[in-house]
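hiii, so i know i said id send this last week but things got crazy w the move. better late than never?? heres the sequnce for the chain we talked about at the cafe, plus the structure i predicted for it. fair warning i was half asleep when i ran it
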Amino acid sequence: MPETPAAPAARTAGSDLVADPFPRLDWSAGARHESVEALVAFAVKSGDDTAQWYFRRRQTKRFWGFTLRTLAMVSIAAAGVLPIVSEMGRSSPWLAVPPGVASILLVVSGVLVLLDRFAGYTSGWIRYIETGQAITARLETFRFDDQLLRLAWSEGEPDAAQAEAHIKLCRAFVGDVQALVKAETEQWAHEFRDALAQIDQATQKEPTELEAGGVLVKVAEGPTLARGWTVRVDGGPPLAARGEAKALTGLRPGMHKLTVDEVVDGAAGARGRSAETVVSVTAAAIETVTLRLGG
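okay and structure toks below
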């Protein structure tokens, strides 16, 4: 029987899984035993190298996943404590916390979690453990099946049919390992696409209550205005108000133009006093502005 041609199998090189040279085998009578041994050794090495690759690589995944998630939890906890510290700072100036720091910490925690998902550290750590363990289990089963087939050998030498059974066993085992690697890779690709979609959504979403800010608009003449007054944000629709103040919430952080108009009686188009100002809105903070109406 002629020797088999070279064919690839999985092995590790640096940080990647690459092809391992297929052994050159001779299936003629008297040479089958050595060929079976070489083929089994090839399959075992292929599976063991692949499993060890996953076990080694999971260490880095575990370190960065644990680090990023821990930092995110610390940031969230700090953001929850800061409002209390800031309240205490009213009586103890040395405890004063600049406004907006809690919001910054919440944003940082979100970025840390998103970075972990994008790089696949925590999820990769879990995938690598599961895949490495699955390959190891297949490897142990393969070793037992190999020994079962050897029981039928006569005087330690397989015949053609028995050698063929070993070839099929090795091919099935190597195929199982490759299927596990493919399934893990497909799962990584799915998670990576989901992470990209989350990043795209994060850049387009409207601000949440924690990310938005607000303005408390006070009008000095407000209590004396019989029909009240209105306020517009960036030229938007007028919002009715009476009395001294009107709270505007859910504003995106940044600069906003406020326009206050007195509501007057009379013919259509009649205009009362008005005032304008530009205010800087900070996330998770309420700014206060006081306006005086002019003619």
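btw The helical segments are 32-88, 101-119, 121-150, 160-204. thought thatd interest u
miss u guys!!
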